[in-house]
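Hi support team,

I submitted a single chain yesterday and got back a structure, but I'm not sure I'm reading the token output correctly. Could someone confirm the output below corresponds to the sequence I sent? I've pasted both exactly as they appear in my results page.

Thanks,
R.
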Amino acid sequence: VKIYSGESPETILKCPPSYIEELGILRQLTPGRANGLASLYLRMKQEAARRL
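Hi R., thanks for writing in. Yes, this is the structure output for that exact sequence:
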């Protein structure tokens, strides 16, 4: 979440969090936590789209 702090809604919508896969974070999370992380990103995208 912090990586998107202060960014415009356009930037949030255009820049998916590819760093999550690149760093291998998903391999370290339980399925429930990974699902929660995906839900958090979806919510951020929805809020960004709402603010356009």
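A quick pointer for reading it: Helices lie at 9-14, 19-22, 25-28, 31-50. Let us know if anything else looks off.

Best,
Support desk
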